Amino acid sequence: MKYETAGEPITGLKWTRKTTQKIAAELNSIDISVSPNTIARLLKNMKYSLRVNHKSVECGNKNPPDPHDRDCQFKRIEKKREQYAKAGNPVISVDTKKKRINWKL
User: Fold this and answer.
1) pLDDT tier at 35 (50, 70, 90 boundaries)?
2) Scanning 51, 89, 92, 103, which has its CA 20 to 30 A from the CA of 33?
3) Where are the alpha helices (DSSP H) in 1-105?
4) Mind listing the pLDDT tens digit for each residue in 60-99?
5) Burial level of 72, CB count in 10 A (0-12/13-18/19+)?
6) Residue 75 gets which letter from DSSP?
């Protein structure tokens, strides 16, 4: 658990990156018989939260995204770029490639 623990130092909140099923399977592989439900209870007693990674869509939680809102993120970036430039801060441009998600209805 040492290397699979994450958290927020300010609030003291901590969680594990592993699922209860994976933890139980690892313990069972070293002859410690335990169920995922028991792992969940033990983690709760140790003040851990169970976390799941969720993907989100920029500019709201639309599924699929509205074509009219596609440039929302770029407008926000442009506004931030202008604010930094006016303040005399350097602005760095990074070109990245991302696979496009094909939404099926």
Assistant:
1) very high
2) 51
3) 20-29, 36-45, 72-86
4) 555 666 656 667 777 888 888 889 889 988 877 776 666 6
5) middle
6) H
